[in-house]
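User: Show me a protein chain along with its predicted structure.
Assistant: Here is one chain, sequence first, then structure tokens.
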Amino acid sequence: MNHFEIQYPVNAREREIKEILLFITKGQSCQLISVPGAGRSTVLRLLAYNDKIRSHHLGEKSTKYLFVYSNFAEMPSFETAELTKALFLAILAGVREEGPNKESWTSLGKEIYGLFKEALSLNDPLVLPQYLKKAIEQLSNQEIIPILLFDRFSEFAEKMPDEF
């Protein structure tokens, strides 16, 4: 991700990121709305993948958050099990790439991967969301707040099954 960080100065999209973080740090959700091509996806990816920008805005608190980017345009289907798997994988990817203390994050990644593997082995679509909740609990137990960044969610929200 170093190449991605080099492309943007720490004050890139500062106003938008400050406003988003204002909601997030208070435990609130928010929706980023813009015209096509205005850079909404870029803002979400900056939060998820640019450590320098997160550190610039959050300071030492940046280690408390795990920003998980999910692009719904890349989802294989709109079945609940497939969406849950995609979110699980996005969390796993975030855990692998993040971490001020690589050793504890590696341990956490192994725990979450174990949950994912166990959920898949049970081959029951009703169990998978429960294991995703356990993975999020694991993050919370380590005092890490997962922030789910859904890109292009609004375009597909109407197609999502009610149980999602």
